[in-house]
Amino acid sequence: MTMKNMKRENLLEKLRKEGRFVENPCNGKGICGKCKVKILSGDAGKVTETERRFLSEEELAQGIRLSCMVYPEEELEVETLQKEKKAEVLSEGYVPEFEKHTEIKKQLIHIRKPNLKDQTSMEDQLLIQLGNVEIPFSLLQHLELAEGTYTAVIWSEKSLMALEPGDQTDYLYGAAIDIGTTTVVTSLIDMMTGKEMGTASRINAQKEFGLDVLTRISYETEHPEDGKEHLQKVITDSINEMLDEVCRKTEVPGKGRIEKHDIYEITVAANCTMMHMLLGVSARSIGRAPYAPAFVKSKNLRAAEIGIRAGEGARLYCLPSVSAYIGADIVAGAYVCELRKQQKNVLFIDIGTNGEIVFSDHGRLLSCSCAAGPALEGMNISFGMRAAVGAIEDVKITEQGVKLQIIGQEEYRQEKPEGVCGSGILAVVKELRRTGLIRKDGAFIKPKDISEEDYRYPMLELDGRKRKFKMTERLRITQGDVRQVQLAKGAILSGFYALLKKAGRTMEDLDQVMIAGQFGAHLPAESLIGTGILPKEVKDKLIYVGNSSKTGAYLALMSGKAKQEMEELAHHMEYMELGATEGYERLFADCLMFPDESEITE
Amino acid sequence: MTMKNMKRENLLEKLRKEGRFVENPCNGKGICGKCKVKILSGDAGKVTETERRFLSEEELAQGIRLSCMVYPEEELEVETLQKEKKAEVLSEGYVPEFEKHTEIKKQLIHIRKPNLKDQTSMEDQLLIQLGNVEIPFSLLQHLELAEGTYTAVIWSEKSLMALEPGDQTDYLYGAAIDIGTTTVVTSLIDMMTGKEMGTASRINAQKEFGLDVLTRISYETEHPEDGKEHLQKVITDSINEMLDEVCRKTEVPGKGRIEKHDIYEITVAANCTMMHMLLGVSARSIGRAPYAPAFVKSKNLRAAEIGIRAGEGARLYCLPSVSAYIGADIVAGAYVCELRKQQKNVLFIDIGTNGEIVFSDHGRLLSCSCAAGPALEGMNISFGMRAAVGAIEDVKITEQGVKLQIIGQEEYRQEKPEGVCGSGILAVVKELRRTGLIRKDGAFIKPKDISEEDYRYPMLELDGRKRKFKMTERLRITQGDVRQVQLAKGAILSGFYALLKKAGRTMEDLDQVMIAGQFGAHLPAESLIGTGILPKEVKDKLIYVGNSSKTGAYLALMSGKAKQEMEELAHHMEYMELGATEGYERLFADCLMFPDESEITE
């Protein structure tokens, strides 16, 4: 094959331009022998020496050729022989259709021994085969190549990341990570197929510095010398542990265990504060008005730069945020839920310590964030606890007494619960209101206002002048607890209304409400409507989309186009600062009211 | 100024397109007030608020305006008010004309305080003013900006390197470094003017690992665990010391001392082995056939990546090489001597332990490298020493006896020299041949072949069967010493002839011979011709170009275009491996012969 021929287009290139799938790990260099096609009619020219090396006599007799070696002089009818591997999807949660196009690719190359007539440098041997990709000098620092076949790992068609001995083009792994304030989830992905190979999750190790983002930011502020570094280290340590854990469980036929050094890209979705802390960037400006973060744009760096141990030169992609309180987790969710492509009015809501709401008016995105406080996650509540074994997660108030559903126990038995988690709190407040034990303004009724025969009478307890709900022998719900929930629901509902108003839409215009997040997934419509977090009109419009933050990270891993579209989405999402919105305080006060009893279902 | 206006071309942009010089450190953002021009005729429109802030009543009355604020609607006659700072040049050595266009630039920006209505992230504030340059996340890690004026340092129009408080646009510094096997020279450059602010030089600290490149490569080979790291560390330590030293001596009006953190770019020329060792890349393949280096291309990295301490994010540019033995020092020299632009036949030669020769046939470049050995630098010679105080640097053999010129002493006195350096060795061998004390084949004549009355008789000494030249009471030149010089001169002369032959040219075609390098600068034409290092025909064609390696590094620092042109030059320079050239051994043997006495002048 002369250099002159090289410039003409070969059959492989022609087929790829037509969008037909032909496997070609060596990128048409005649090294891998995998780009076989069958010539059905037409003259494909002489069979080359290279083809004889890879094709059997039988194959040649059938008209099978290596498409990178055929330079068509006339029209050919060609049958491709491989089926494109169908992209598989995550083990759980809603995943939209996407075009697999990973930013990391592998390519076979062949290193030959230099001689006195050809002293081409090692770098130039690589460049000649790989096209003009950048070769980081750090890779040259430990480049000791002998003659033979190698697999080049290339990032974004522009930079060589690693060289693996032999043909490793079948194996390519990445990790998608969702860093929540409370929980961190790591998913190991086969980037060749999109299959999830395993997951690990941990309580966010930053909890020792505070349960919510503001407390952690305070920690950073109070420890100017090393606070930022501590916060970063615990989270990167935790990610390293999880990567170890997910790899340990794997077993790939023909390869064995996936090792950490097989992971070449990691994508991260997180709220804006978590993202700052992951990258070791000060989050202080997020913690105080006017809430201007240091950055919102996506970041693409070497994972090693922040201490994450993975493959040589492995990339770390951090999804973009919109503002201090609309983070990459929400951008991920909005992307997964295709909010920019909606042909209707959709409201997306992630309920948690911060409630984030995105309204899509036929693709135009408007967002706000509501400081709901930690009550909805079981914090700042007398007997509040996280959703774990022993936590009350549902409550029914019946004429026969209080019935509880406890995590890890059979239905509605009353075996000494340890406390009450977020969904339990919402359930009990909903029930208190449904049964009239609290008024619309959230105050407990007085025991003297109901008769002693009333089934509710024994459930009310008077402690001095303080009224409480007696949930079990030991557990009480206090007026303070109800107020905490009330503040949270007021914050979210007022955000909901303010956003609709800003968009110039009414409740009737709303076609769908999407509930995102792991926490939201545990909140039944009855609790959401019954406590008045959401208005009754949306009851039949709710759908649950699961952990869309992790799914967004997954899509970014599997597709460069998804990264780009998320960046565009983040750029086009408008943000409304509730605190700076006219009439917001009045709206918030109105939204503190609980619904009418009649509107609440069991 | 509305966004609509922004898109029209202002007067500043028009003037710059016409190639007229207008100072504008804020890049036309209306922040610095420096782009004043005088409107001689035509209507320049209304004076803006911004202009009133920067211009006095008197200036306005004279028709002076800020050119970035004027959007011409008609033809204007304009007088520019500043004179472009004239580029100054290095303190010594030949420097061709060049276009100053540094890759590092400074730009004024203004940070404003965010508020609840505008929560633009700090990163986005920067991006809006700087255009879409990349902001490395490491810079975000220590970004604590208050409201006010900052100076952005931008690399290659694409990446933000640093932010300095206040207006620092008048100050920009860089360093040009020449790493020779023997000597390292560092030059501190004012990149705004091109002026050399100071120099420092050191014996290459790698000398503890060997005096020549092959010995150092052996050291690396013999210490696989940390040899490469040691070799790298001594050289980077040494560069850090020199940067300290050159800065320490400076005093800039209005600024004070230049600090290391003011240095934003460092350019390095070096031979291929030194470049590998500087970057911590194994040079082992350079030390053995077939001499294929790990890399030859230019490298552009952060100086901190190899432990060089300079400004935040400071760049390190390593000039490109051609092959294992035609390094970036020769590329630099060939560029400085404009070999690609020559309209004649020019031979460029750098004489040292390795002699590198480049032949330019009207711009077509052909090169070779000759392993001359260390004799020409005074090594492997009985009383050899480096060029230092006490070394014999010139010798005359007269009828009145041997006259010496000793470094640090008055002319031709004989005060106990310590030894003989490279130029002295060449001089004495030339004199031995001129006076017939050695024959064409390099052998000493026998004492018995001349009469005892001959003035040369007492200069010949017989030590058993070994003949020696008695230079002083203590110092002798042995037959072995003469052989060392003979091997060196044979290597260089045969390279010279082989290159001419390969180019299809004869001696008559040669228009000029350029002698490069610090060592070459000390070799008079008489020695070069008299010892037969160069043929007698070139005697009147010699010119000396000094340390063109350092000058090349300087040009790369001052001009992005120079970098690009050097890369092209390196790419287009052909390399001939002498050892693989047919008939080379015969040619080498022929070239061992010394010239006829009659051809040698005193």
TrEMBL record, chains A, B:
<dbReference type="InterPro" id="IPR012675">
    <property type="entry name" value="Beta-grasp_dom_sf"/>
</dbReference>
<feature type="domain" description="2Fe-2S ferredoxin-type">
    <location>
        <begin position="1"/>
        <end position="84"/>
    </location>
</feature>
<dbReference type="InterPro" id="IPR001041">
    <property type="entry name" value="2Fe-2S_ferredoxin-type"/>
</dbReference>
<dbReference type="Pfam" id="PF17651">
    <property type="entry name" value="Raco_middle"/>
</dbReference>
<dbReference type="InterPro" id="IPR052911">
    <property type="entry name" value="Corrinoid_activation_enz"/>
</dbReference>
<protein>
    <submittedName>
        <fullName>DUF4445 domain-containing protein</fullName>
    </submittedName>
</protein>
<dbReference type="InterPro" id="IPR036010">
    <property type="entry name" value="2Fe-2S_ferredoxin-like_sf"/>
</dbReference>
<dbReference type="Pfam" id="PF00111">
    <property type="entry name" value="Fer2"/>
</dbReference>
<dbReference type="GO" id="GO:0051536">
    <property type="term" value="F:iron-sulfur cluster binding"/>
</dbReference>
<dbReference type="InterPro" id="IPR042259">
    <property type="entry name" value="Raco-like_middle_sf"/>
</dbReference>
<dbReference type="InterPro" id="IPR027980">
    <property type="entry name" value="RACo_C"/>
</dbReference>
<dbReference type="Pfam" id="PF14574">
    <property type="entry name" value="RACo_C_ter"/>
</dbReference>
<dbReference type="InterPro" id="IPR041414">
    <property type="entry name" value="Raco-like_middle"/>
</dbReference>
